Automatic annotation (TrEMBL):
It comes from Glycine max (Soybean). GO terms for biological process: D-xylose metabolic process. InterPro entries: Xyl_isomerase-like_sf, Xylose_isom_bac, Xylose_isomerase. Belongs to the xylose isomerase family. This is Xylose isomerase. Gene3D superfamilies: Divalent-metal-dependent TIM barrel enzymes (3.20.20.150). Residues 1-25 form the signal peptide. It comes from the Eukaryota. Keywords: Carbohydrate metabolism, Isomerase, Metal-binding, Signal, Xylose metabolism. The gene is LOC100804624. The keyword Magnesium does not apply. It catalyses: alpha-D-xylose = alpha-D-xylulofuranose.
Length: 480
């Protein structure tokens, strides 16, 4: 009897609870250590992340993991708001399609909103989670591949129809949330048809398929008001030169880009086209090896005016350069358009796509960005994932927060370095011998070898000054 009564009471309680859910939506939870924050219900509202408040700036002394210590969106640094220098973007593929699977093991992440399928309904639900996530995080942009946001169909028509359905919802959600697309792209590397490449495939029908897919991806990026469009040539490269006509493949790639430019103009898409260099992985050799190789490709085919580069820091280190080097190479060639913000592991030789946490590296990155006058219409896309072993929903927020704080700190440091001026002075002094009459003649291309030989005879053996490398490092360290 007692038991029956208990069951009845429990059932009643459950009904009341269910009724409440139906009327007021999902319950709001309030972590024990954060009770004082739960008064303001708007901060915690949400269907997917009810345990996470809207992330706010609390300053460097805050111990709240769910707050910014250095990124203060509205604060002005060197005459521009932090949010306008940084233009952060969440990468849909890592944050919402990353499962933690690796070549040795199954997925490790089981997000509550996932139902384990790749259905259209699931795609829509995920899209809603995406906008709740970026709204709580306080980021203005997002980036996507066509196939991350909507399931691939059996035919191109079916894939396009799926994409249209998800994109219509994305458009509605992003308007409501006041968010924007930093860039869109086509996934031309996962499907087996692309095993020999897409635009550089040895198969004509694959080239055509890739063209049709990119055509649609540009259309939906345009529809969503995307500010850029990225070409990452994951399989545009080779595994063996013995079976490869490299010259023909590169010509095909150039024709593909020309056709993309023509189509972009035809439909009135004004976003910037970006090429994302990477030396290898998945191919042994990717044609867009690094910034210099990509710049040369664009120049050879007369495409420099139509494209800029999207520099990814982990790709930079894979090609044997620092991220700073790649950014400077892009910048001095007038090609710095966007940054895929991530980092590799110094002990690991592949694209681990970790969130950037190195403050010194971030300072050098921001030095290039400031010298470039910012990145707009580009920005910082977090092409970064949680590691396999990080499996809490909270980790998704923490990872982005630390990534944003690292770059914000880099921005503050770089501004200090510029305002201090001693590094610039060190560099100026190093080259001051060229600030002379003969130096000016050399730089203007007016000093021939005979003149310089005459001068050497007049001057004798040159006295060579110190490079002051350690001093430069000391100055850099003083702002970290
Ligand atoms: C992979 C690339 C990829 C591009 C978009 O290494 O970084 O994620 O950014 O296709
Ligand atoms: Ni990338
Ligand atoms: Ni990458």
């Amino acid at each position: 009897m007692m038991k029956m009564k208990l069951v009845k009471t429990l059932l009643l309680l459950l009904c009341v609870k269910l009724f409440c859910y139906a009327v007021i939506g999902a319950p709001q939870t309030c972590p024990a250590n954060n009770e004082d924050k739960c008064g303001d219900s708007d901060e915690w509202k949400g269907e997917f992340f009810p345990d996470i408040p809207k992330i706010k700036y609390e300053g460097p002394s805050s111990k709240n993991v769910l707050s910014f210590k250095w990124y203060n969106a509205e604060e002005e640094i060197l005459g521009k708001k932090m949010k306008d220098w940084l233009r952060f973007s969440v990468a849909f593929w890592h944050t919402f399609r990353g499962t933690g699977a690796d070549p040795f093991g199954a997925p490790t992440k089981y997000w509550l909103w996932e139902d384990g399928t790749n259905s259209l309904n699931m795609a829509k639900r995920r899209m809603r989670a995406n906008f709740e996530f970026i709204s709580k995080l306080g980021v203005d942009f997002w980036c996507f591949h066509d196939r991350d946001i909507a399931p691939d169909g059996k035919t191109l028509e079916e894939s396009n129809a799926n994409l249209d359905e998800v994109v219509a919802l994305a458009q509605e959600l992003q308007t409501k949330a006041k968010k924007r697309v930093l860039w869109g792209t086509a996934q031309l590397f996962m499907h087996p048809r692309y095993m020999h490449g897409a635009a550089t495939s040895s198969e004509l029908k694959v080239y055509a398929y890739a063209a049709a897919q990119v055509k649609k991806a540009i259309e939906v990026t345009h529809y969503l008001g995307g500010e850029n469009y990225v070409f990452w040539g994951g399989r545009e490269g080779y595994q063996s030169l013995l079976n490869t006509d490299m010259e023909r493949e590169l010509n095909h790639l150039a024709r593909f880009f020309e056709a993309a430019v023509a189509y972009k103009k035809k439909i009135g898409f004004n976003g910037t086209f970006l090429i994302e260099p990477k030396p290898q992985e998945p191919t042994k050799h990717q044609y867009d090896w690094d910034a210099a190789t990509s710049a040369n490709f664009l120049r050879k085919y007369g495409l420099t005016g139509e494209f800029k580069l999207n520099i990814e820091c982990n790709h930079a280190t894979l090609s044997g350069h620092s991220c700073h080097h790649e950014l400077e190479t892009a910048r001095i060639n007038g090609l710095l358009g966007n940054i895929d913000a991530n980092t590799g592991d110094p002990q690991v030789g592949w694209d681990t796509d970790q969130f950037l946490v190195d403050i010194q590296e971030a300072t050098l990155i921001m030095l290039s960005v400031i010298r470039n006058g910012g990145l707009a219409p580009g920005g910082f896309n977090f092409d970064a994932k949680l590691r396999r072993e990080s499996t809490d929903v909270e980790d998704l927020f923490i990872a982005h927060i630390v990534g944003m704080d690292t770059l914000a700190r880099g921005l503050r440091n770089a501004a200090k370095l510029i305002e201090d001026g001693s590094l610039a002075e060190l560099v100026r002094k190093r080259y001051q011998s060229f600030d002379t009459e003969i130096g000016a003649q050399i730089e203007a291309g007016k000093a021939d070898f005979e003149l310089l030989e005459k001068k050497v005879k007049e001057w004798g053996e040159p006295k060579v000054a110190s490079a002051k490398q350690e001093l430069a490092e000391m100055i850099l360290q003083s702002v970290l």
